[in-house]
Design brief:
Length: about 350
């Protein structure tokens, strides 16, 4: 996984002023001290969208044809049919004493989208779908699409502005909300479920990096150009995606580690993720000198990666989150050319980017 691949990269460079960087370069498994077994509440839960507010991808497809065709080529779509037949899934289920994957709340949270039908019954309707990323749409779907009851050409700029304010207030996650979008990916992709990992043998998160993972099979920038092309991210936006991705990786791994209760695969993997992400955050901070990135790197450098530090780790995660949001809101990417050298090249994108019409 990504972790092991980057672990060997030596971090040559002066430490940031005042930021003691404990443990750089040391083996993490060895560096993770055995902490006290903490009596913590429930493990960090992935956010399960409210099925009563899900309308379903079929409704989005009425207008968003190209985006829907792209989605249908992704793992997110295919997992709906494939997971219940997957041998590995049955093994995980068995280890946890579960019977049917598709009806298990725990697996549903991340692998499927559920909807409450008019008769009051809730059932899985798809894999990871539009509303897993843009949020359940019942309260915003009509509002975002109707040009305030006018036509595209006759809606005034003020009305359009108000329409988007309303859609966002009703929960819509828009492409402009990079931090929130990314946090959502990580809610599933870090797999913040200790028991699922340690006892069930589930992968301890994906080797996720936002640019690589969003610009391959996932990319569906076909709307604002009427399906003419699946537009790549602009150079400015790529920088933001990369930096916000590193910050949210750090935040999510710190949070997951803060909820760990035993020194096993889950805690060890999350500690490794923190270690790698904070190296990257430090590189970004030094290259850009951006005050929020510097804040993130400093806070993370001070984190002691032991189970006994749960409370302080959660505090550091909060700090990282706040600075990451501030960073995402402040920048349009134009002043961040220093990030370009860290960007992965197109060949590293995960999966095949779909061409519209194919
Ligand atoms: C009745 C047609 C219609 C339906 C149904 C519809 N949309 Fe849209 N959608 C639109 C229109 C029109 C726009 C562009 C509005 C604009 O640019 O001002 C849009 C824009 C968007 C955007 C881009 C927003 C932005 O900030 O640029 C997203 C994301 C989106 N829709 C997601 C969805 C999802 C998810 C669903 C299903 C839950 C859905 N839409 C259902 C018509 C629709
Ligand atoms: C917190 C989110 C989350 C939960 C809960 C979850 N998974 Fe997963 N699962 C993932 C992610 C993310 C991946 C992709 C991992 C990767 O990138 O390799 C995955 C991958 C898998 C895979 C490998 C898929 C493949 O195609 O090879 C199996 C099998 C699996 N999960 C089964 C389960 C089962 C069974 C449950 C319920 C007991 C479950 N998962 C619950 C997030 C989750
Ligand atoms: C894995 C998460 C994910 C899923 C699933 C997803 N989207 Fe998106 N969507 C995004 C992200 C991230 C962006 C912004 C990408 C960017 O800015 O380049 C986006 C952008 C969009 C846009 C704006 C495109 C443009 O031309 O600028 C629309 C419209 C949209 N999504 C609709 C949908 C619809 C409809 C579905 C379901 C068929 C869907 N999305 C499924 C994450 C997702
Ligand atoms: C609701 C949970 C959830 C959300 C949100 C989510 N994913 Fe996923 N994603 C999964 C699961 C589960 C899998 C594995 C499915 C399988 O293989 O069975 C997966 C698989 C993928 C894959 C395919 C990986 C491979 O090995 O081929 C990519 C790429 C991906 N996700 C990117 C993203 C991006 C980018 C975002 C955010 C914009 C995102 N995902 C949001 C749950 C999620």
């Amino acid at each position: 996984m990504q972790g092991t691949r980057h672990q060997g990269i030596p971090f040559a460079g002066a430490p940031l002023a005042g930021a003691p960087f404990a443990g750089a370069g040391r083996s993490l498994a060895a560096g993770l001290a055995l902490g006290l077994l903490l009596a913590l509440p429930e493990a960090a839960q992935a956010r399960a969208p409210d099925p009563a507010k899900v309308v379903g991808a079929t409704e989005c497809a009425e207008c968003h044809k190209e985006e829907t065709e792209t989605w249908k080529k992704t793992r997110h779509y295919k997992t709906f049919k494939e997971l219940p037949r997957n041998k590995e899934a049955r093994k995980i289920g068995k280890a946890l004493g579960l019977r049917r994957v598709r009806s298990e709340g725990l697996c549903l949270t991340c692998h499927f989208s559920s909807k409450t039908e008019d008769n009051g019954k809730t059932k899985p309707i798809a894999g990871i779908s539009c509303e897993s990323c843009h949020s359940p749409a019942k309260d915003w779907v009509k509002r975002h699409s109707k040009y305030s009851g006018k036509k595209k050409e006759t809606e005034t700029p003020e009305e359009a502005k108000q329409r988007w304010i309303d859609a966002e207030a009703a929960g819509m996650i828009r492409p402009s909300m990079i931090y929130t979008l990314t946090k959502n990916c990580y809610g599933c992709h870090i797999v913040p479920e200790e028991k699922l990992v340690n006892k069930g043998g589930h992968p301890a998160g994906s080797p996720f990096e936002l640019v690589r993972w969003s610009q391959g099979e996932i990319r569906h920038n076909t709307w604002h150009n009427s399906g003419k092309e699946n537009r790549p991210l602009s150079p400015e936006r790529l920088r933001l995606f990369y930096a916000v991705g590193v910050a949210v990786e750090l935040e999510s791994a710190l949070r997951a580690l803060s909820k760990a209760t035993e020194k096993d695969r889950f805690a060890v993997t999350m500690a490794k993720r923190v270690q790698i992400a904070r190296l990257r955050a430090r590189r970004l901070a030094r290259a850009t000198k951006d005050p929020d990135l510097v804040k993130i790197a400093r806070a993370a450098s001070a984190a002691r990666l032991t189970l006994a530090e749960a409370k302080s780790l959660a505090g550091i995660a909060d700090l990282v989150a706040k600075a990451a949001q501030a960073f995402a809101e402040k920048h349009d990417g134009s002043k961040l050319a220093a990030i370009d050298r860290f960007l992965p090249d197109n060949k590293q994108h995960k999966g095949k980017t779909r061409t519209p019409g194919s």
